[in-house]
């Protein structure tokens, strides 16, 4: 019946899976044909579809613009109609300060607000200037328009301020409409300009501000109207493209099909998995799961899942990509998924190997197979280590992630995912190593019956050391040195010693201690190679720099200049020459520079465009006060090849690569020309001097890492030049360098400079003479504190991840109803830790806040000093005391002052920029020309002597200090501004040091709390633990437990009381046992006496009868004698049997313990009783014969006793079923007979000696059987129901898991 | 014990897969900086062949063939995507992804130049992005490495 049910259930399942599979296939077909139909429909009806979509698009653009515009209108209207503003404007004596305050409160952040009086004079403002407001636009009616600049375009809304219908002023809102910023880096990117109109549309568009004209068919013109209904501009949208629409449909269809294929795969997998025969075969089950994991993994790669569904940066190769594994690690996200698959594989292998195979008892181990396996594994482990080393190296060298960026305590998301992936891989490695070593140890133990743990570990250690040595010899590139591999072996052995039992007893992950041990080992295994590889990575950077520096003859800068000239004379530039708008022309050089290779490389340079008459059209330069090369009109038409020249930059002579090329249109007409100059100064050897915010780079540049390089040059064994002032000129060349031969051209040494250790790379060209002329690149050596800081940061991250996993585990256990998760000791540790963590975390937070405030204060103090220095320099050296003096002060003068005092600054006059030592930042419109309104209000209106303000370039924030320039009468005529922008490196270092200190202190406090918590909890919980163990032993019958306690506190008293109680209990137990024994002996003696009397009586009677017959001289005396002697002999036999059984019960014969195969024994025993033809034996044995350690004969007698009882109970007619089973390391043997069963009253006494339901016998059989089973560490249970037969269940421990034997 | 052997063999196969799927540095044609310093003076064989193969690889949008010529670190600037310094492996995938989204057609080297040991080559082509055609400029910078040239810069403007 059960087989029929099973068959029915299976076929029902198969039908269900079949239905799902067919449905999915049909869906795939549906999507496939649906895509074809859609595409076909698109092609046939493209014209009408296109028109409809374009109409919708036009409506969307127009409504978006109206909303965009109405926000500006509302904002400026609110200001223009505000009662305070109206009152202030109508009452002209109101202070400007109040107006600044009011406009500051009312203006939204993304809009610039300006307020003009009725004479169109600017009264106050809030926000950046953006573009200069032409007062011609101000009129008495509300109006809006777009002003297009070369880089920024603004939506301007003008709203008149009226008082009793009289015009008293104008409110103006300027809102960023579009940005055409040519620089793109991590500070300045599209996200910074996300509030523009074009970013709202979400697509690239062009704008046309000219009068309506004919547009290309590829563009859809959309008119945008102002608030007065006039057209203000035309948005040109790219017209919809059939290919684009088809591609969009194809992409959606492809994603759906991929998802369906994935579901199909999962369905088929589940269907095959449910097959009964698959479940029964362990080895096939293992391969099934392993194949599933890796087929699924490569399936994901083939289908581009999940990157096609989630557009996340961690699935792009820009952070990390390795050719490892044929695409399974082509991004951070892919590596994470692969690490999960790898860990799953190892877990499956370990579970299957240890639990199912080594724990199960089999026939004798095949030595050859065992040794082969051990040999293979001893070589596999170093191979796994090599793979691990390769992964770590790739994780560092094939990635742009900064593993040791000190600015962050916890890593950012991509780095966090990468670290997690590496942790999972490390965990898999540790698990594989620990499992392999444990398996080897178990195999050796079984093969050689080794009982000494020390000897076993020594042998196992020897095997793996030999394996590693052999691997070292055989493999050409093991990546780890032998010493390092031995270190890892030590980790594996430590793990194996601490987790072996967990592997065999329960699933490793549900044993918290083992998981924690393996996790700690994984972190240790990972930290070392990661640290090593990042160090090597830093060094490889230095070596690559060195290569660039010593390129012979013409360097890269020449190629760069040529390439720049080529780019700067392309068609787009040619068209720009025709531009009439002066602003646009002015920005031409900057935009061209930003779009060219020059902005990516970051060298100090200048770009100058010339008109065809030889005058300068536009110029842009970086880094110094470049003087544009003069180009004679006659030579405009002729290119000038790139050459190295000397030029004066400021007061210095600098080597410069300079070139010129004419710019001609497609007809060959000369439009003008362009010249490029690139600085070949010393700093340029380190890859450019331009700050990162001014580069067209993603932030992943050559020298963007923690430690800065210092370039030095030695001539004749003395330091001739260094890019850092820390290295004193004239320093001697280190001795190790002097002693080098001519052939040695590059090496690393450590050197001490001003009490700081540097790692220095010395190098020179291969053909240089041996005159002790060297170049060097130095970086500060990371000390132990730095390493500790980095290690602790990573440990903190992993601890946080483990903590999150732990919380999930607790939650899941709680939901499942498992409330008792933790021991008392663990609870104590956690309590101590939490109690220590909370105040420490609060302290750390407030400390950090305080440290931040102090750092800011320190910056402000420095800005105060610097602004004083600048104002003093301007007044004393340049005699600037009046506005007129300031007018003559220009950028060149500012650069000179800045070079002298080493402080960059800007001077403002009348709220606008007047001169700056960094004019390129204003030319590039990174700095606003107009002073910030807060600064104006505080310095000019409130007459403060010093003020600071936070400014930003994109997402990069910095503090600026402002100080007024005062006339002799004390009136403010200008403002000096000193930004910290140019000291960011220094400030970052301070932040790093602060972070390191605070973090180190915090971690130290937490570590102390953890140690104290651990020790204290151990102190508190140890007595309870001892008491618990003692109680368990007592419960098991062991009264010889001793608790030795030296404590004098309450726990000490408790332990002493326990000891006293135990002593009393033991005494009582002994008395009871003695009394029971005496009673048992009395009973036994009574019974024996009774039993002995039984045969004695007939013996006496027979002898008496014989004597009487002899006296009576009866005739058949001989016959009588025969009878009597037969009776007497019979009774003597009975007496002998009674004596034997009594002897057996009283004293066990000497045992012979050995391996005993149960199935063979049971077969022997059942065969003995086959002569009872009415008894049928139904034997059902498990596949693997259990092997136990026992006295075979003794066990045989026990089984015989049970079977004999059954046969007797069934009256030699019936069935005896014998079943065997292995579970939980115990052999289970069941005997079931079809007899009448045992009465309930008798069941309780079955194993008592002297109890019997039979007419003959001592009633000792089952008592002897029980004793036998008990002595083997097993159990015996009898279940019976009247009329249903009797079942005797015996459980015996398998070999090697026998408990200590009881010795009688 | 048969099953134990099975597990051991499975482990060995996995370990070998892990190791064999990680190519060593030689196959990536990556040289250490020391080697490159020492090999600068060696003559270059078949320069025109190298240029021709690279041109072919760009025409076929084959990141695989291009990556054979990458130095250890390569500077990439691809129109509309991230730019920066990447390892050869990363550059391989970035360029592969780039070409999978937009096809570069009609590419030819139009100018080549040498400057001492350095070489550069530029050319024009057209990118098809979402069905639209845009003219682009390609710049490839080479670094001498032994008897060959390797790509140290790859830009598509």
Describe the structure.
The complex is a heterodimer of chains A (1304) and B (157). Chain A has seven domains: 56-240, PAS domain (Beta-Lactamase); 350-550 and 785-821, no CATH class; 556-694, LuxQ periplasmic domain, N-terminal subdomain (Beta-Lactamase, 2-Layer Sandwich); 708-781, Beta-Lactamase; 847-993, Beta-Lactamase (2-Layer Sandwich), CATH 3.30.450.20; 1050-1140; 1151-1293, Histidine kinase-like ATPase, C-terminal domain (Heat Shock Protein 90). Chain A has 33 helices and 30 strands. Chain A is elongated and about 170 Å long. Residues 698-705 and 1300-1304 of chain A have low confidence and may be disordered. In chain B, strand 3 and strand 4 (118-129) form a beta hairpin. Chain B starts with a helix and ends with a strand. In chain B, strands 2-1-6-5-4-3 form a six-stranded mixed β-sheet, covered by helices on one side. Chain B is an alpha+beta fold and 157 residues long. At the A-B interface, helix 6, helix 8, helix 9, helix 10 and helix 11 of A face helix 1, helix 2, strand 1, strand 2 and helix 5 of B.
Q: Could you tell me the mean pLDDT of chain A?
A: 81
Total number of domains of chain A? 7
List unreliable stretches of 5+ residues of chain B: 23-44
Helix run count of chain B: 5
Could you say which overall geometry of chain A the principal axes of the C-alpha atoms support?
Answer: elongated
The DSSP helix count of chain A reads 33
| CATH fold title of chain B | Nuclear Transport Factor 2, Chain: A
Number of strands of chain B: 6
For the record, the CATH class of chain B is Alpha Beta
Which percent range describes the beta-strand content of chain B? 35-45%
Largest sheet: spatial strand order of chain B: 2-1-6-5-4-3
How would you spell out the order of helices and strands of chain B? HHHHEEHEEEE
Radius of gyration of chain B: 19 Å
Q: Which pair has the most extensive contact?
A: A-B, 91 and 61 residues
Beta-strand content bin of chain A: 15-25%
Task: Tell me what the CATH architecture of chain B is.
Answer: Roll
């Amino acid at each position: 019946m059960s087989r029929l049910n099973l068959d029915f259930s299976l076929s029902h399942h198969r039908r269900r899976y079949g239905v799902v599979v067919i449905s999915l296939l049909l869906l795939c077909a549906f999507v496939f044909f649906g895509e074809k139909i859609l595409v076909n429909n698109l092609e046939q009806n493209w014209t009408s579809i296109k028109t409809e979509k374009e109409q919708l698009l036009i409506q969307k653009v127009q409504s978006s613009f109206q909303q965009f515009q109405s926000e500006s209108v509302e904002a400026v209207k609110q200001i223009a109609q505000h009662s305070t503003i109206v009152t202030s404007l109508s009452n002209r004596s109101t202070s400007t300060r109040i107006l600044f305050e009011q406009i500051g409160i009312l203006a939204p952040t993304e809009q610039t607000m300006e307020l003009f009086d009725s004479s169109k004079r600017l009264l106050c403002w809030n926000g950046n200037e953006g573009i200069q407001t032409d007062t011609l636009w101000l009129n008495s009616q509300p109006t809006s328009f777009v002003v297009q600049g070369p880089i920024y375009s603004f939506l301007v809304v003008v709203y008149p301020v009226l008082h009793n219908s009289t015009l008293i002023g104008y409110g103006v809102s300027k809102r960023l409409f579009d940005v055409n910023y040519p620089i793109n880096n991590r500070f300045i990117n599209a996200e910074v300009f996300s509030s523009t109109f074009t970013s709202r549309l979400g697509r690239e568009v062009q704008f046309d501000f000219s009068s309506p004209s004919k547009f290309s068919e590829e563009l859809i013109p959309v008119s945008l109207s102002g608030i007065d209904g006039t057209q203000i501009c035309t948005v040109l949208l790219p017209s919809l493209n059939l290919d684009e629409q088809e591609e969009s449909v194809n992409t959606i269809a492809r994603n759906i099909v991929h998802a369906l294929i994935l579901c199909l795969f999962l369905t088929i997998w589940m269907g095959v998995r449910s097959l009964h025969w698959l479940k029964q075969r362990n080895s096939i089950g293992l391969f099934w799961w392993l194949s599933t994991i890796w087929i699924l993994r490569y399936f994901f790669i083939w289908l581009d899942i999940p990157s096609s569904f989630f557009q996340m940066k961690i699935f792009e190769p820009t952070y990390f990509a390795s050719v490892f594994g044929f695409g399974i690690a082509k991004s951070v996200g892919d590596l994470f998924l692969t690490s999960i698959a790898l860990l799953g594989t190892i877990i499956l292998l370990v579970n299957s190997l240890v639990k199912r195979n080594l724990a199960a008892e089999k026939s004798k181990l095949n030595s050859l197979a065992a040794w082969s396996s051990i040999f293979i594994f001893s070589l596999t482990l170093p191979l796994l280590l090599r793979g691990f080393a390769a992964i770590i190296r790739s994780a560092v060298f094939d990635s742009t992630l900064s593993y040791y960026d000190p600015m962050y305590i916890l890593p950012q998301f991509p780095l966090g995912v990468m670290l997690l992936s590496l942790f999972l891989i490390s965990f898999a490695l540790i698990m594989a190593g620990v499992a392999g070593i444990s398996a080897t140890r178990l195999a050796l133990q079984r093969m050689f019956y080794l009982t000494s743990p020390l000897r076993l570990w020594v042998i196992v250690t020897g095997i793996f050391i030999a394996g590693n040595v052999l691997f070292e010899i055989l493999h050409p590139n093991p990546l780890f040195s032998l010493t390092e591999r031995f270190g890892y072996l030590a980790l594996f052995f430590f793990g194996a010693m601490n987790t072996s039992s967990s592997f065999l007893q329960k699933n490793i992950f549900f044993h918290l201690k083992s998981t924690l041990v393996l996790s700690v080992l994984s972190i240790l295994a990972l930290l070392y190679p990661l640290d090593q590889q990042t160090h090597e990575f830093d060094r490889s950077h230095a070596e690559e720099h060195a290569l660039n520096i010593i390129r012979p003859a013409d360097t890269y800068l020449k190629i760069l200049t040529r390439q720049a000239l080529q780019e700067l004379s392309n068609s787009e530039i040619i068209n720009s020459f025709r531009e009439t708008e002066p602003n646009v022309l002015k920005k031409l050089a900057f935009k061209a520079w930003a779009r060219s290779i020059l902005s990516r490389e970051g060298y100090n340079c200048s770009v100058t465009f010339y008109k065809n008459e030889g005058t300068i059209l536009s110029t842009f330069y970086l880094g110094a006060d470049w003087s544009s090369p003069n180009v004679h009109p006659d030579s405009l038409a002729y290119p000038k090849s790139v050459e190295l020249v000397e030029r004066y930059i400021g007061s210095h002579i600098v080597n410069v690569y300079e070139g010129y090329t004419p710019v001609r249109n497609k007809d060959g007409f000369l439009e003008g020309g362009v010249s490029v100059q690139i600085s070949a100064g010393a700093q340029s050897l380190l890859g450019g001097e331009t700050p990162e915010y001014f580069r067209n780079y993603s932030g992943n540049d050559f020298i963007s890492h923690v430690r800065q390089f210092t370039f030095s040059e030695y001539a004749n064994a003395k330091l001739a030049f260094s890019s850092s002032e820390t290295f004193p000129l004239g320093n001697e060349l280190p001795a190790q360098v002097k002693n080098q031969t001519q052939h040695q051209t590059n090496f690393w040494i450590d050197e001490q400079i001003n009490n700081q250790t540097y790692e220095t790379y010395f190098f020179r060209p291969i053909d240089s003479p041996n005159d002790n002329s060297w170049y060097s690149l130095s970086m500060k050596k990371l000390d132990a504190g730095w390493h500790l800081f980095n290690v602790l940061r990573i440990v903190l991250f992993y601890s946080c991840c483990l903590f999150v996993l732990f919380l999930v585990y607790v939650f899941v256990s709680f939901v499942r109803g498992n409330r008792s998760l933790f021991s008392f000791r663990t609870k104590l540790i956690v309590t101590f830790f939490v109690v220590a963590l909370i105040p420490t975390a609060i302290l750390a937070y407030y400390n950090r806040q305080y440290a931040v405030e102090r750092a800011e204060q320190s910056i402000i103090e420095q800005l105060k000093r610097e602004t004083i220095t600048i104002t003093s320099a301007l007044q004393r050296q340049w005699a600037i005391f009046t506005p007129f003096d300031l007018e003559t002060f220009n950028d060149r003068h500012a650069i000179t002052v800045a070079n002298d005092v080493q402080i960059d600054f800007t001077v403002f006059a009348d709220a606008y920029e007047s001169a700056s030592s960094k004019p390129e930042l204003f030319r590039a419109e990174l700095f606003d020309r107009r002073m910030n309104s807060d600064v104006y209000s505080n310095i000019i209106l409130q007459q403060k002597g010093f003020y600071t303000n936070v400014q930003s370039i994109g997402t990069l924030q910095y503090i600026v200090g402002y100080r007024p320039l005062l006339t002799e009468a004390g009136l403010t005529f200008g403002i000096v501004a000193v930004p910290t922008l140019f000291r960011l490196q220094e400030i970052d270092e301070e932040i790093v040091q602060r972070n390191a200190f605070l973090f180190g202190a915090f971690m130290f406090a937490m570590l102390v709390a953890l140690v104290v918590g651990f020790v204290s909890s151990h102190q508190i919980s140890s007595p309870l633990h001892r008491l618990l163990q003692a109680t368990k032993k007592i419960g098991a019958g062991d009264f010889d437990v001793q608790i030795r306690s030296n404590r004098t506190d309450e726990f000490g008293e408790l332990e002493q009381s326990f000891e006293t109680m135990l002593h009393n209990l033991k005494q009582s137990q002994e008395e009871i046992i003695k009394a029971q024994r005496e009673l048992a002996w009395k009973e036994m003696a009574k019974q024996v006496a009774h039993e002995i009397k039984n045969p004695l009586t007939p013996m006496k009677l027979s002898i008496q009868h014989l004597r009487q017959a002899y006296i009576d001289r009866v005739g058949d005396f001989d016959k009588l004698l025969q009878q009597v002697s037969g009776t007497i002999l019979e009774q003597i036999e009975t007496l002998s049997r009674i004596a034997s059984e009594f002897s057996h019960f009283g004293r066990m014969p000497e045992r012979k313990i050995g391996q005993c195969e149960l199935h063979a024994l049971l077969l022997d025993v059942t065969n003995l009783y086959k002569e009872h033809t009415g008894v049928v034996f139904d034997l059902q044995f498990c596949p693997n014969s259990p092997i136990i350690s026992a006295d075979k004969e003794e066990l045989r007698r026990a089984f015989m006793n049970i079977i004999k009882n059954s046969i007797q109970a069934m009256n030699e007619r019936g069935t005896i079923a014998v079943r065997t089973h292995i579970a939980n390391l115990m052999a289970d043997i069941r005997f079931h007979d079809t007899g009448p069963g045992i009465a309930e009253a008798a069941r309780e006494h079955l194993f008592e000696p002297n109890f019997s339901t039979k007419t003959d016998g001592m009633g000792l059989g089952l008592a002897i059987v029980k004793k036998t089973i008990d002595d083997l560490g097993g159990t015996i249970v009898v279940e019976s129901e009247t009329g249903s037969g009797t079942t005797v269940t015996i459980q015996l421990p398998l070999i090697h898991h026998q408990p200590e034997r009881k010795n009688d | 014990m048969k099953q134990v052997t099975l597990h051991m063999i499975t482990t060995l196969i996995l370990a070998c897969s892990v190791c064999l799927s990680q190519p060593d540095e030689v196959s990536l044609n990556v040289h250490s900086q020391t080697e490159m310093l020492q090999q600068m003076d060696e003559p270059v064989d078949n320069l025109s062949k190298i240029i021709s193969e690279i041109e072919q690889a760009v025409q076929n949008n084959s990141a695989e063939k291009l990556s054979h010529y990458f130095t250890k670190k390569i500077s990439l600037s691809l129109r509309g995507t991230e730019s920066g310094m990447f390892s050869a492996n990363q550059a391989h995938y970035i360029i592969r992804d780039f070409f999978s989204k937009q096809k570069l057609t009609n590419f030819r080297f139009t100018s080549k130049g040498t400057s001492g040991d350095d070489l550069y080559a530029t050319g024009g082509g057209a990118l098809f992005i979402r069905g639209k055609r845009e003219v682009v400029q390609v710049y490839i910078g080479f670094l001498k490495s032994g008897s060959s040239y390797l790509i140290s810069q790859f830009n598509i403007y």
